[in-house]
Amino acid sequence: MKTKILITFILFCFISCKNSEKTEKTERKDQPDIYNVKGNDTEMNAAIEKANQTLTDFNAALLNAEIEVKSLKVKFQNETDIEHIWLSDVQFKDGKYSGILDNEPEYITDYKIGDTINVDSKNISDWMYIENGKLFGGYTIKVLRNRMSESERKQFDAESGMQID
């Protein structure tokens, strides 16, 4: 059960906002917080690029049955918004990913929590797995964590229970 709690806590999404000058947090009842990030955020875009460049590391982790927490962050888009949401129970078969939508979308109405999503690899924005309590991947998580206040970061670290380099 701790694994599911951990996934729920760290699997926040982020949205590309046109009017935001900095990262803003939107708190939601019974859902992970949303971090609003501008589409031209250099640091976040570099994190997404790094995640895509290292996707083979995630693929290797998918084959390791001893690693329980394996998630993929995917970009969803409608006419006005972009929302990045984590998927759990990720599968990689015949060169294609699929997974379960892990939180309720805020702006994208085509999907709901619990839906099985087939992933177009061009829409992957991050990946993560936790092995022996240590986070691997999670590049967008690290960017957002670094932007937290010291007290928020301490709370995040304590509640997530994972080691982040």
Q: Distance N terminus to C terminus?
A: 25 Å
Number of domains: 1
Unreliable stretches (pLDDT < 50, length at least 5) are 1-13, 15-21
Number of helices, where a helix is a run of at least 4 consecutive DSSP H or I residues = 5
The geometry reads as globular
* Largest sheet properties: 9 strands, mixed
- Strand content bin: 35-45%
The overall strand count is: 9
Helix and strand content put the structural class at alpha+beta
Overall pLDDT metric = 84
Helix and strand sequence = HEEEHHEEEEEEHH
Over all CA atoms, what is the radius of gyration? Answer: 15 Å
Q: How would you describe this structure to a colleague?
A:
This protein has one domain. The chain contains 5 helices and 9 strands. The chain has helices at 2-10, 42-53, 55-62, 139-147, 150-160; strands at 13-16, 24-28, 31-37, 69-77, 82-93, 96-101, 116-119, 124-131, 134-137. Strands 1, 2, 3, 4, 5, 6, 7, 8 and 9 form a 9-stranded mixed sheet that branches. A hairpin with a 2-residue loop joins strand 2 and strand 3 (31-37). Helix 2 packs antiparallel against helix 4 (139-147). It is globular. The chain starts with a helix and ends in a 5-residue tail after the last helix. The model is unreliable at 1-13 and 15-21 (pLDDT under 50).
